[in-house]
Amino acid sequence: MAISFVNVGIAVDDLEAAIAFFTDLGLSLIGRDEVSGEWADTAVGLDGNHAKIAMLQTPSGDGQLELFEYIHPDAILSEPTRPNEVGMHRVAFQVDDIDDALAIAARHGCHPVRGAANYQDVYRLTYVRGPSGILVMLAQDLTKT
Q: pLDDT per residue over 12-39, tens digit each?
């Protein structure tokens, strides 16, 4: 059986703020839509499913992020995910300059969970609490600088 990675989907409480955050980090908005109807109910498993969606892509084209904001049923706000919780908890991006990426994140009110760390002089990395509480890992490859 052939399998390939398509995207990571993340529900957000403010689609426009999430789009602004990720496009400022360097992703490109490649599409937007509003989805609803029987097919959406069946695919997602929610009756009356209605959401605004946006698809973003990395500059290299090898990764996509699907953001969605529920119109119906109402979004369920929860505590922000912690790094040690079981289940999906973060999305990661490699950046050329982690300090620049952190400055961009800060302009959106998004800050590191603790700080940037040096991993064996190979990577400098951090977890940032992004829009809607999303954990975003930023990593700079120190072997390329």
A: 999 999 999 999 999 999 999 999 999 9
Inter-residue contact 43 to 86 (CB < 8 Å): no
Q: Are 14 and 21 in contact (CB under 8 A)?
A: no
Q: Which domains are seen in the chain, by residue range?
A: 8-72 (3.10.180.10), 91-144 (3.10.180.10)
The DSSP bridge pattern shows strands 8-11 and 64-72 to be parallel
Kindly list the averaged pLDDT for each block of 10 residues, start to end, along the chain of length 145. Answer: 82 96 97 94 92 96 94 88 81 94 97 94 95 93 88
Cα–Cα distance, 67 to 63 (Å, whole number): 13
- What is the rounded CA–CA span in Å between residue 136 and residue 145? 22
Query: Is residue 10 within 8 Å of residue 19, measured between CB atoms?
Result: no
**Contact assessment for residue 46 and residue 108, using Cβ atoms and an 8 Å cutoff:** no
> Who's near 98: CB < 8 A, 6+ residues apart?
116, 124, 125, 126, 138, 139, 140
